[in-house]
Amino acid sequence: MIVTHIQQRFGHQSLRRASELLQARETLSTGMEAVDDLLDGGLLKGATHSLSGQATSGATTLLYRTIASAQAQGIPAVYLDMEDLFDPPNAAATGIQIDRLLLISQTSLKRALFLIRCLAQHQLPCLLVVDNPPTLPLAQLKAALRHAPLTLVSLSPQPLLQMQVVLQCQLQSWQLNNQDIIGFNSDLCLIAHPFLPCRQRRMSFAVPREETDV
Predict the structure, then answer these.
(1) How far apart are CA 31 and CA 67, in angstroms?
(2) CA gap 123, 138 in Å, rounded
(3) Residues 184, 178: contact at Cβ < 8 Å?
């Protein structure tokens, strides 16, 4: 009776089962199985992500590998390079197809937000990266992305704790061959996630020398 009353007053689309929310949750693979397992499938489409880490932490490598994975899945990647930090050689080493990457360099925050809203309004599926933004109006971003097939990742030295998904990379150990450094191991910590009750989940991944963050 109550279902019929609500539907008559607010429309048949006003009600749906809570289980549909789980079925509707879509993810974007990072291209790294262990990271996808940590995230229960990958990055969340329609959500904001904070990926942080200092130089030589593995954060940039993880981001670049995710971009390469998106391209391999036929999903375009847009890179907003706020401070001209994009590194083409390292990006190519991780598998990014440089000629297919839409790179916007040294743009203003106002223009960046305008682009984000346009992509969201047109329901264009893509991976949108914002490299080292000065600040972000997170409430506006969450509202714009709520029903859009757009995955937003912000890369910064320190975690943006207001983001829906918060990941932090730290150098764990160096990989040595005799006295030569051939790479390092990175520790990845999941600090926050809207659908995972367990916090502070961790895993590690290897970064070879040719992909080493600088």
Answers:
(1) 9
(2) 19
(3) no
H/E element, 60: helix 59-72
Report whether pLDDT(18) > 60.
no
Residue partners of 35: CB distance under 8 A and separation at least 6: 42, 62, 188, 203, 205
Residue-wise pLDDT for 35-52, tens only, equals 999 999 999 999 999 999
- The C-alpha atoms of residue 107 and residue 17 are separated, in whole angstroms, by 42
In angstroms, the Cα distances linking 143 to 48, 116, 163 are: 10, 11, 12
Interacting residues of 198 by C-beta distance below 8 A, sequence separation 6+: none
Give, as one character, the DSSP assignment of residue 45: T
Q: Name the one residue in this structure whose structure tokens are 């932490």.
A: 57
Is a pLDDT exceeding 80 seen at residue 195?
Answer: yes
- Read off the pTM: 0.84
